[in-house]
Every structure is written in structure tokens, then in C-alpha cells.
Amino acid sequence: MRLRARLLHILAFAPVTAAVAGALGVTVPVRAGTPAAPRPIVVAIDPGHGGLPDAAHPAQPFDPGAIAASGLLEKDVTLDVGRRLAALLRQDMVTPVVTRTGDDWVDIPTRERNAIDAHAALFISIHCNSFSDPAAGGSLVLYPGPQSLPFAQSVSDLLGRDLGPGGVGDDGVQLRDNWWIHNPMPTATAEIAYLSNPREAALLASAEFREQVATALRDGIEHYDPDIAARRDQILAWQRMHHAAPPRQARVPQSSRSAAARVPTAGSVFRTVLAWIAGVVAAAALVRWREPVTHVTVIAGSITVRVLQGTLFRRWSGRRRRRRARVEVLVRGRQRWTRTHSVYDELFL
């Protein structure tokens, strides 16, 4: 009887207690969530070739690429153009991922893996061409498959438009289905000019021409993917909205702010009352029906743990399968492309 009387007292005073707590409790205004900033589009830039010979490690691979009669190395031209292209893309709010940032030798699977891990939307590889006839010249864009043909055509068109007036002809596009065969994104290899052609080699040695090439590549990328310009506008609009200085407000005395903070809203009082009532009812139930409530709580906790364990195990298993499949693909690619002298075939047309 005493237990029931106590429970009746608790339930009788619960609404009064909840109302008092809601009236005296400090309310915190709920602010609408701030929308996240738009994510920049990622473009992978691959400066071809790279690496230096090391007498202390003669087995270490290196790849200078084509060499002009003047001694100009393809690896140096491609790295400089790649850096210029990355700078231009950053100005348009694109995130460039450069597969080779220094004079280093990087194998094909690693270049592909870097682009894939960065979730690149496009992949552009930069090279210089070479041929036994020094009169051969022009720009050429290679692509690994039908998916990449529109991207390669866009790059080729813009190279022809920007470099043609300077005497570097447009040789169009050509299928090269044994390069970049594991790239899931549209991929193009730009052979920007011939180092074996003395006139074009002299152009490739100039900083002005390299900047012109980088601009043409940037234009070809953005012409193919108009989402880059749209995303740039979204990012700039978001930055203007969230980085602008907030309007200045009149200072409010501390006493007034404190008084205003203590004034609850109807919604906050209602939520506080509901929370107190739910807590009191749960406490009363636990006192009155201790064993059944405890039993139900244990069963619910056990079911929740099993569901979470099953979900986490499935996620872990799926992640492990995807990782194993990607490793197998990269290993096959490494076996295909392992060389002692170069990571690229010499292109003869």
C-alpha cells in the first residue's frame, strides 16, 4: 500500500514539476543547420615520365622520355606544363591531383591509383611526341577507349585552336588501348608537340608556349565538363554568403540579455514538460515493475547489439572485398607495365 501511495504522489506532482522546470529552465535557441560548402571537382594531372639515374642504385628505374637535339628532356617539359595547368585549374575552384610533383619515377599503377583514390572526375596525361623524321610535327591526343573519346576530342580541339596559329598543327585523336586501361574516369593523353622537330622543340623550351599549352588543356577540360564552371559559381556564391562580415548590431546591456535568455518559448516549455513526464513515468515503472522492466531492457539491448554487429560486419566485409579487388587489379597492372628502362612505350606514327 505504501508503495502505491508513493507512486500516486509521484504521478500527481509530475506535471507540476515539469511545468516549473520548463518555466525556470534555460532555453537554447535551435539554429538551422548551415549548408555545407559545395565540393570542388577533382581533376588528375599526370606529367609524363620522370626520374634521375642513381649510380648508387643502378637498378632504380628512371625515364627521361624523348630528348630534343638541344638536350631538352620531355620529363622536364611535362612537369612544368603540369604545374601550370594545376595552377590554372585552382583558379577555377578545381582540385588538381598531380601524379608526379617532382623529378621522380612513378610507375603506371601508382599514377592510376593516385587518381582513383582522389575520386578524380577526369584524367589528363601530358607528353611530348617524337619521330624519326624531324619534319613531323603537331599535337595529338590519345584515348584508351570509347568512354574517353569525347574528352580526348575536346582536348584536341582546344589544343588545335590555341596552338594552331603558332604553327603547331592539329593531328586529331587516336585510340591507344594499352595505356590507362584501369582508369574508370574519362582519360586523355596529350602529345602536345614534337621534341624531334627543331622548331617545335624551341617552342617547348619557352615559358610563354608552355603557359599557352596549359591554358589550352584547361580550356579543353572545362569545355568537356561544363559542371566545372557551374561548381565554381556555386563555390564562389557560398563563400560570399558565409565569409561576408555579419552586420553590426546594437549592444544590449548584460542585464537585458540575461533577462531575455530566461524567457522560454512555447516550444521549449512543451519539450521540457514532455521530457520530465517521460522521465517520471519511466522511474515509476521501474519502481513498480522492476523485474519485467529490467528483463525487457536487457532483451532490447541484446537485439540492438546484434543488429549493430550484423550491420558493422556487413560493412566491414564489403569494404574488405572491394579493397582486395582493387589490389588485384593494381597487381595485374603492375605486372603488365613493369619495365627496366621506361614506363612508356615510344610512340612512332
List the helices and strands and how they pair.
Elements: H1 2-24, E1 42-47, H2 74-91, E2 95-98, H3 108-117, E3 122-129, E4 139-143, H4 149-163, E5 170-175, E6 187-194, H5 198-204, H6 207-224, H7 227-243, H8 254-261, H9 266-288, H10 290-337
Helix pairs in contact: 1-9, 2-6, 3-10, 4-6, 9-10
What is the straight-line distance between the termini? 102 Å
- The structural class is alpha/beta
Number of strands: 6
The quaternary state of the protein chains shown equals single chain
Q: So, the CATH homologous superfamily of the largest domain?
A: Zn-dependent exopeptidases
**Shape type:** elongated
The biggest beta sheet reads: 6 strands, mixed
Describe this structure in words.
- By secondary structure, this protein is of the alpha/beta class.
- The chain has two domains: 1-29 and 267-349; 42-237, Aminopeptidase (3-Layer(aba) Sandwich), CATH 3.40.630.
- Helices cover 54% and strands 11% of the residues.
- A six-stranded mixed β-sheet has the order 2-1-3-6-4-5, with helices on both faces.
- The longest helix is centred in the C-terminal third of the chain and has 48 residues, at 290-337.
- The protein is elongated and about 100 Å long.
- It starts with a helix and ends in a 12-residue tail after the last helix.
Sum up the structure in keywords.
single chain, 54% helix, 349 residues, 10 helices, 2 domains, disordered C terminus, alpha/beta
Summarize, please.
With 349 residues, this protein is an alpha/beta fold. The chain has 2 domains: 1-29 and 267-349; 42-237, Aminopeptidase, CATH 3.40.630.40.
